[in-house]
User: Which sequence fits this backbone?
């Protein structure tokens, strides 16, 4: 079997608990979605079925239940929480949230909109971004109301705060060229947590609400196919429960919130080849693309399937940012002090996955770091260039140009901030391999089903598929390539998850 | 209406002749594909229905008919021929074709495979490439047998031959880094034609065969929806004929060969944002994405939807290649003497759509060319840099590096061939804007339905959708980003179109 003939979802899926006993032979032969006629009886039912228990699914379940619906939340894995629970739980919020105001941070909806729409992917979903920014402050209040804890403390670090602070610059707002787009503001809202476990705290709060509201929660129930009526309406889902096939009727609607597909290697190769060489799938094991695949099989369009988050975590410590990052031609190509998602994107998507960090005595990576290997060391830049096999004189010329201007506190190419800008000034010089296949580069996917503002899923003809909603990384939302700030993904998942839950509970309204 | 809620196919489609009278209200509400139950009678029928009359559709119709099927070929536009007819008609073939042998050109299947699989998109469809290379020589014989005329004459130009020669280097085989992958060979096979009308000649021959074989051909019949049975089998198609809705029964199978989607602006923005700023849709008006959308609506997966061909036609004359191409940082980023599809890819996908050609006295663009505007002119490189607003000293440094090595006949960065390698040596210096939005950059799309070796269409679960086939730019085939050689698209369309036609005629076999 090869890339041409391998079922993109089945082989890996077969390895997962609960799927082994389910052969596709039992399906109506070849039907991408199950016709209603093939379902003789329903094993379970609910007004709203939510598939997936991460931030998107939990938010959808909460709002659907509050809108009066009988809600069933299923999760393919043994534990609830999805990829959100292993994330840092950052929510990108702004325009003057309660926390921003309490900390004296000035921000506007317009600045937030300019940043998100201008710094990231080309031709982004402007209407979603607009709504997200306008309602961001209210959405943060909602998170607080669900019991997510935040502390009125501003972090000064460039990474997720580790000392319990709840607000920080989580993206590339201060780096060039983003800082010319809009007044920068810290917008990364982090639950109070020990270390980087904010996602666990966030999900604990949301899942507690889900349970308290009386949502029925079932783990180890894995979606397989949507059941679709003759009129195109999505009526339910065929699932696998401990190896047994069951059907669930969703009277008002289904919310697909099953994450992305970074753990499905065939899908990554087919859809997002640039991410295929990233060695670390950064998501919960449930990110198998099943929600996306169920949607496509029912006629949904999927957008931006090639995009994703390739993280090259250069810092901390921030001292390394006084080094320079170069490509295989010895050229700089990005502001080193940008968000590591922007750096990762530049390497994965635009430098064929290859780059090196060049440091001097004062900017070396710490001895204990093991994310990136030192692949050359020498007393001169020429020593490095020779060891790396770089084109003759190229690295030397580029370092000379950089040093000449850095000595005047200038970086004409990428406008690195003064704090990190000084000439490379003394041996030993080192080169560290940042190439995707040779270093620690976590990745996940951003492509997903084409949805509207209420999570309604569009077919390839742009028509709403009745009864079907999607949120989080199962949908094509705010995150794009480059990924410009931590918190956009969980922010998008909670915000649009809520809207999808409400719309699904409203039934035919959407 | 915005990007979130606009039907990607409908608005533009509505502008086309024959579609005006067809409102979607008449469809079964929301059904992405039509259930068989909704079709009370069939207006027409055939064993095999082929949608689209370009190279893929014509090749499919020929082979389906020869396999004994009753074939109906429909075309949405008034004339047959599709985008192939307005192309140069180049077919990329090798491994020792009759024409290569007659001209004393040495080539091997292995060299051709190494080039196609190694020089283009990451993680390409290896099994398709392998088969294509192995059977390339036989496929060329087939084209000759259909009456496509070739002349035993080798061209020395880098572009489609204009003097009736039929073989040339149509890609980046001779440019670095491709030339290190495999022994280069000319593989662009061009029908004998006046100027660049090889596509017309190719399609005239193929369509004459279609007609002679007794295929029923109907123009101005536009596909709208696939009709799908409860078991998932594709049974037929709903079409629009002069504003009237009709249904066509396909007893054995349907081949979707309706081209790509470069003329559908909403689809381009949603799926291939990097191509959205290319000002010239380079395809026939029928490339509206309808075949792809009909397939997706029936549960098919679509791959590589972001990829396409952005053409920056620097040459001829080849003398301009002694200039250098730089990005907004004054850096070179590609071998100037590469195929213009590789250059266009580098600009569109990796330089945010912006680049400039820098020339000296001996490498200026001709006075009469109007593809690219001269945006700066001066007596020194510094004059140019200042006029262009480039970062301080960057262009000057890069030109100095280039000149220093070019004086020794070396190009350490991109290994430009000696014929084009010399220092920039005298005023006036000029800069020409190659940026997508400001110059002549034709583009078309490469993304399409996920198909196997026989054109069978896969659902998102990797299962064959019975009765459905796709070929040409309606499928995800050999062309990727970067597009490495003229002829891969029409080559893929004819080769896999033939296979799809044969398989569809065989009915349940596939």
Assistant:
């Amino acid at each position: 079997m090869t890339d041409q003939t391998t079922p993109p979802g089945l082989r890996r899926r077969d390895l997962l608990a609960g799927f082994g006993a389910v052969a596709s032979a039992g399906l109506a032969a070849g039907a991408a979605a199950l016709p209603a006629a093939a379902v003789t009886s329903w094993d379970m039912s609910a007004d709203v079925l939510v598939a997936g228990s991460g931030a998107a699914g939990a938010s959808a379940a909460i709002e659907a239940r509050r809108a009066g619906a009988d809600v069933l939340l299923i999760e393919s894995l043994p534990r609830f929480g999805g990829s959100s629970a292993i994330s840092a739980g950052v929510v990108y919020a702004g325009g003057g949230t309660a926390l921003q105001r309490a900390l004296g941070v000035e921000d506007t909806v317009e600045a937030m909109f300019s940043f998100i729409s201008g710094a990231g992917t080309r031709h982004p979903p402007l209407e979603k971004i607009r709504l997200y920014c306008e309602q961001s402050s209210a959405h943060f209040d909602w998170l607080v109301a669900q019991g997510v804890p935040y502390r009125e403390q501003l972090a000064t670090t460039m990474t997720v705060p580790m000392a319990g602070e709840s607000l920080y610059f989580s993206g590339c707002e201060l780096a060039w060229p983003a800082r010319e787009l809009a007044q920068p503001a810290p917008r990364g809202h982090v639950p109070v947590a020990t270390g980087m476990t904010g996602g666990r705290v966030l999900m604990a709060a949301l899942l507690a609400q889900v349970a308290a509201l009386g949502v029925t929660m079932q783990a180890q129930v894995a979606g397989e196919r949507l059941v679709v009526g003759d009129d195109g309406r999505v009526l339910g889902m065929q699932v696998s429960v401990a190896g047994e096939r069951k059907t669930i009727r969703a009277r008002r609607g289904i919310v697909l919130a099953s994450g992305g597909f970074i753990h499905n290697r065939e899908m990554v190769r087919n859809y997002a080849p640039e991410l295929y060489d990233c060695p670390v799938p950064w998501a919960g094991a449930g990110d198998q693309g099943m929600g996306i695949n169920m949607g496509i099989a029912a006629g949904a369009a999927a957008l931006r399937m090639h995009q994703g988050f390739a993280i090259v975590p250069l810092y901390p410590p921030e001292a390394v940012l006084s080094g320079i990052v170069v490509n295989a031609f010895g050229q700089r190509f990005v502001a080193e002090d940008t968000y590591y998602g922007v750096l990762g994107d530049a390497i994965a998507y635009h430098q064929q996955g290859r780059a090196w960090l060049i440091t001097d005595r004062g900017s070396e990576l710490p001895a204990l770091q093991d994310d990136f290997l030192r692949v050359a060391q020498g007393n001169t830049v020429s020593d490095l260039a020779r060891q790396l096999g770089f084109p003759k004189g190229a690295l030397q010329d580029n370092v000379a140009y950089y040093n000449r201007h850095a000595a005047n506190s200038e970086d004409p190419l990428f406008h690195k901030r003064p704090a990190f800008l000084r000439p490379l000034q003394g041996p030993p010089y080192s080169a560290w391999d940042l190439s995707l296949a040779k270093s620690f580069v976590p990745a996940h996917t951003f492509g997903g089903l084409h949805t509207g503002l209420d999570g309604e899923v569009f077919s390839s003809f742009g028509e709403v598929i009745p009864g079907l909603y999607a949120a989080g990384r199962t949908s094509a939302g705010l995150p794009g390539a480059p990924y410009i700030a931590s918190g956009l993904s969980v922010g998008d998942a909670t915000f649009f998850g809520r809207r999808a839950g409400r719309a699904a509970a409203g039934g035919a309204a959407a």
Observations:
- Residues 1-30 of chain B have pLDDT under 50 and may be disordered.
- Chain B touches chain A through 84 residues (CB under 8 Å).
- Chain B is about 25% helix and 20% strand.
